[in-house]
Design a protein that fits this description.
The complex is a heterodimer of chains A (391) and B (162). Chain A is built from 13 helices and eleven strands. Chain A has helices at residues 26-41, 66-73, 89-103, 117-121, 147-162, 166-180, 194-199, 227-230, 263-274, 291-300, 309-312, 331-335, 342-354; strands at residues 8-15, 50-52, 79-81, 109-115, 202-205, 207-208, 218-226, 238-247, 283-286, 367-374, 379-386. In chain A, strands 3-2-4-7-1-8-11-10-9 form a nine-stranded mixed β-sheet, sandwiched between helices. A two-stranded antiparallel sheet of chain A has the order 5-6. The chains are: A alpha/beta (391), B mainly beta (162).
Chain lengths: 391, 162
Amino acid sequence: MSAHNRDPVIVGVGLSDYPRAPHLSPRGHHVQAMQRALEDAGLNKRDIDGYMTTEAGIPGAEEYSLPEMAEYLQIDHRWLDGTFTGGSAFEFMMQHAAAAIRLGMAETILMTYGSSLFSHMGRSLGTNTSYEPVGAQQYEMPYGSSIVSAYAMAARRHMHQYGTSSEQLAHIAVAARQFAAMNPNAMYQDPITVDDVLDSRMISDPLHLLDCCVVSDGGGAVIATTAERARDLRQPPVYVLGTTGRQTHWNISQNPNFASTAAALAGPEAFAQAGITHDDVDMLMLYDSFTITVLLLLESLGFCKPGEGGPFVTDGRLAPGGSLPINTDGGGLSSCHPGMRGMFLLIEAARQIRGQAGPAQVPDCNVAVAAGSGGWLACMGVTVLGAEATR
Amino acid sequence: MTEELFTMPELVDQYRVDVVDGSSWTRPVPKVDELSAVYFAACAKGALLVQHCPACGHWQHYARLMCTACGGTPAWRQVPGTGTVHTHTMVTRPTLPGFAGDEPYVIAMVELESGVMIMGNVIDCPQEDVHVGMAVQARVVKVSDSIGIPQWRPARGGDPAR
């Protein structure tokens, strides 16, 4: 370790109340998560000199901008960022935070997120009510497109190209529920079977209700600083070993390849930065807006070849006790999805690296990958976290 | 950018597609901008327009002020209203105004000869029959003189040889 080691590390994480928190407004989630992350790290708010958040865009809920939230939290920042890429925003922001910390533009950066999606909207995410038929949506909304139909078209294309089945996709939902059973806060904890998924109501074929994530409330906060500063803080540091982002499109009708994602570029770049191979990875936090999202990310990240995701997910390797556990908090599919899940990917991956993931702890977890998917399978952010510096 | 970008090109009859009355349309209607106004007005006349870049040969849809490949100024091209289904879904839980009661309905990405893909509904056939590779042809619902919504139905000649 050099005299002043500016390797970026996560030193504090916090979750606000979830999955249902009618007592919290969006800013209530930001505040609670921040307080818990500061407590976790053993830091004071005045130690924070960099701040990040992004507009959550909850129809009907009070809106706020990046500088408004910075004002509300009264962060005396010298570095500020609010990149919006949909659900992957926090992986994209982690890339920026890591660079800022390395360059000395900020010493200790706070990233917060908060959403009251469930309390404001109930189970109606995907109604598109916030969209107007303007811009690219002029070419989609007249046809009755929805968030689910967008992902359904990706699933259909994958099935056509590779013979993937609904049963194979269902295994992803079943594994998520097995982990959710270990999380007392998870929205749904009762075990489900492959048949339960296949028998659940069809929303947009081939995606059933249980192929879709929950709609919840929730928020989170992450605090990152230098490895040097982390030495006298409360928690073991979690190294940000690699962090990348790539975009192929935004609206689903502009998707250049329905059977792949931009993570096919972002993944290898993040692994190269981190100096790791697939064999080094102990667990994955993969954005699971839908079961198909997980399958595409597994392939894009190279854990199996394109088209082999179907068989890959059916042998139990993703489930508790498997060789490649994913979404150990129960995922968006069963635990918590307030609209932008990327924050929770970072937090759970960090908890796993620290060895603090409770019953869902992956033994000897030294490297974890958080892969966020934003928009309509569009903006892919990949962050590699580790217990130690790799270079 | 050139004036031609904002002007409907001369339309040819050989590529004209069927137009049906859509004055009772209750689904979302595009709020057109300076460029999409040309696209949707051409649709109302039974013409499907996509953009082609004279400089680099790139084809694109939706219409933009610049070529997405080289950044130059694209030109309108009227194309035959034929394509194949690249992927599709049958929506059983409608979420947008004007669709309630019409479920299930099919949304597809239709791939044109140039390779560009256009979203649309597949109509006029049993929904279970819609499949990847299915040959389809456009039919426009004329919502007003300035806006036509292209949809797709099975091509008269059936699927292309595989």
